[in-house]
Amino acid sequence: MKEKLSQKFSRGDFLRAAGVTGALGVSGTLLGAHAAQGQGRDYQGQDSGMGGMDHGSPKASEAMEDMHFGFGGKGDVDLSRFDPTEFLRTFDYGEERQEGGRTVREYEVTAQDAEIEVAPGIMYPAWTYNGQVPGPTLRATEGDRLRIVFKNRGSHPHTMHFHGFHPANMDGMFEIVAPGQEFVYEFDAEPFGSHIFHCHVFPLKEHIARGMYAAFIIDPKEGRPEADEMVMVMNGFDTNFDQENELYAVNTVAFHYQRHPIKIKKNELIRIYISNLLEFDFINSIHTHANFFDYYPQGTSLEPSEFIDTKGFVQAERGIMEFRYKFPGLFMFHTHISEFTELGWSGLFEVVE
Questions:
Q1: Which tops the pLDDT comparison, 82 or 46?
Q2: Dist. CA 191–CA 334, nearest whole Å
Q3: What span, in angstroms and rounded, lies between the C-alpha atoms of 311 and 254?
Q4: Do 146 and 186 contact (CB within 8 A), yes or no?
Q5: Between vectors from CA 216 to CA 312 and to CA 212, what angle results, nearest 5°?
Q6: 110 CB contacts (<8 Å, ≥6 apart)?
Q7: Across 73-102, average pLDDT
Q8: Are β-strands 34-35 and 310-313 bridged in parallel, bridged antiparallel, or unpaired?
Q9: Does residue 245 surpass a pLDDT of 90?
């Protein structure tokens, strides 16, 4: 039997050779993906040196920079191609019109092959919706009529399977859309909640692992309290195609929110639509430091089910997190699966006055 590549090049080897603890730069031969030379330095074993230090000193500034980047290093991806910070608060409401006295929202989604940068210098050959992973966050209000014009410009058959209510012929299971073809999905937006859509062509695991998924939000008719709203899609990347992930992230780019902390206001209500689209691992999770959050499973109730600081998710599980921070400063959030944290699924909230 052919020996798995992961046995020759483990995740630990990836950490050391790729410099995940700094910026990533590894031979594409080892990764199965294209890689460019990254810049960075090893963070393992370093002390921040902050104890008793003048926080205005040059040494303190350097130490704070290391803490700020955490495991993320000093390299960065090309943010002009995909910026996870911009993606975080971007919602696609479609083109709105009135037809027969009701609101109709029309979207255009295109499947296409695209190389995406999942860490500094690491390019991954993805299958995408609209050239990005995750795909665009589609959003509507309960009762709207949705019309999604799906165009397959990729090299493989694809579909869009929406989690929610819809007729059988709009399920995205049997309506296979071949390369060069189009299909129009049309259904009513229900039930309200935090949902997802993904490709449902077999082998299903490959289409999901390659990046064909996104968040799908349906707001209740009465709305929700005003909040700073964000979307977080937990995912990972099998860069050597051995069905074991080498990188983990929220919104695709490893350690992005370590390098670019998410700015939020003290005492402001934060609402996160979170979902798990990780393939090849059975469970994922999120943990907020120094805080707890109200959790709404699937977002289908206006009352939270629990008040917690750590939540586990199986694949396709999703919900809504709501919280406020009482104190300013940098606060970490990450998966509570330590291996995933060290391989990219980690970030910071920067709470400001």
A1: 82
A2: 29
A3: 20
A4: yes
A5: 80
A6: 129, 130, 131, 150, 151, 152, 153
A7: 94
A8: unpaired
A9: yes
> Token pair for residue 48?
């921040």
Of 228, 24, 219, give the one whose Cα is nearest residue 117: 24
How do residues 275-327 score in pLDDT, each as one tens digit?
A: 999 999 999 999 999 999 999 999 999 999 999 999 999 999 999 999 999 99
Vertex 248 angle, CA 244 and 251, to 5°: 130
3-class SS of residue 213: strand
Amino acid at 2: K
CATH architecture under which domain 96-219 falls: Sandwich (2.60)
Structure tokens, 241: 């195609």
- d(CA 107, CA 43) in angstroms, rounded, equals 44
What residues contact residue 64 under an 8 Å CB cut-off, 6+ apart? 50, 55
pLDDT band at residue 47 under the 50/70/90 scheme:
very low
The answer to whether residues 229 and 325 touch, using CB atoms and an 8 Å cutoff, is no
Sketch the domain layout of the chain as residue ranges. Answer: 96-219
Q: In this structure, which long-range contacts are made by residues 35-41, counting pairs with CB atoms below 8 Å and at least 24 apart in sequence?
A: 35/121, 35/122, 35/123, 36/121, 36/123, 37/121, 38/73, 38/75, 38/120, 38/121, 39/73, 39/74, 39/75, 39/120, 40/73, 40/74, 40/75, 40/120, 41/73, 41/74
Q: What angle do CA 206, 250, 61 make, to 5 degrees?
A: 140
**What is the length of the chain?**
353
Identify the band that residue 60 occupies on the pLDDT scale cut at 50, 70 and 90.
Answer: very low
Instruction: Give me the residues paired with residue 113 across strands.
Output: 127
